[in-house]
């Protein structure tokens, strides 16, 4: 029976950093004879619920519905740009899947998705935060590296062209 392709999960946030990780994967995939399945995971925080008294002409429900529609449209734009980039990088369309999910904690969502897919590895870009910044701001890649039970490949932005 034909061997199932190896699944890689790419944590994508539409930044130049995650695009660098996507480019790195495309180069790796082009150098190999085997086909890999790339699942691009875009975790987004849902818009906050409207609070307090509002003097708007619309109800809180209408406002939240509008915010969710705008968020959904943004996700759709990111998906289209990302899949177009995959095509430019020569990744076969049938080997790429884009998944988006509303999640308040992207690090936890990435680890859970990798487990659900039984991904061979998690790929992600890094913003290159210094230790103090990472301590104060938190770091999704730092969380994933410490909590994933599988290899995590963190691709620095400088690797983009190299």
Automatic annotation (TrEMBL):
SUPFAM superfamilies: Adenine nucleotide alpha hydrolases-like
Annotated CDD domains: USP_At3g01520-like
Residues covered by the UspA domain: 9-156
Pfam families reported for this sequence: Usp (PF00582)
Superkingdom, natural source: Eukaryota
Name of the protein: UspA domain-containing protein
């Amino acid at each position: 029976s034909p061997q199932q392709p190896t699944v890689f999960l790419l944590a994508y946030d539409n930044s130049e950093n995650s695009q660098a990780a996507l480019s790195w994967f495309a180069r790796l995939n082009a150098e190999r004879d085997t086909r890999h399945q790339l699942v691009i995971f875009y975790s987004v925080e849902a818009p906050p619920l409207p609070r307090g008294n509002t003097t708007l002409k619309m109800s809180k429900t209408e406002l939240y519905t509008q915010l969710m529609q705008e968020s959904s449209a943004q996700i759709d734009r990111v998906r289209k740009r990302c899949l177009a980039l995959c095509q430019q990088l020569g990744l076969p369309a049938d080997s790429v899947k884009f998944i988006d999910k509303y999640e308040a904690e992207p690090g936890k969502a990435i680890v859970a998705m990798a487990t659900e897919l039984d991904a061979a590895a998690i790929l992600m870009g890094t913003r290159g935060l210094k230790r103090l910044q990472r301590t104060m701001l938190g770091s999704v890649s730092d969380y994933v590296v410490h909590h994933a039970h599988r290899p995590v490949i963190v691709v620095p932005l400088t690797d983009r062209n190299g």
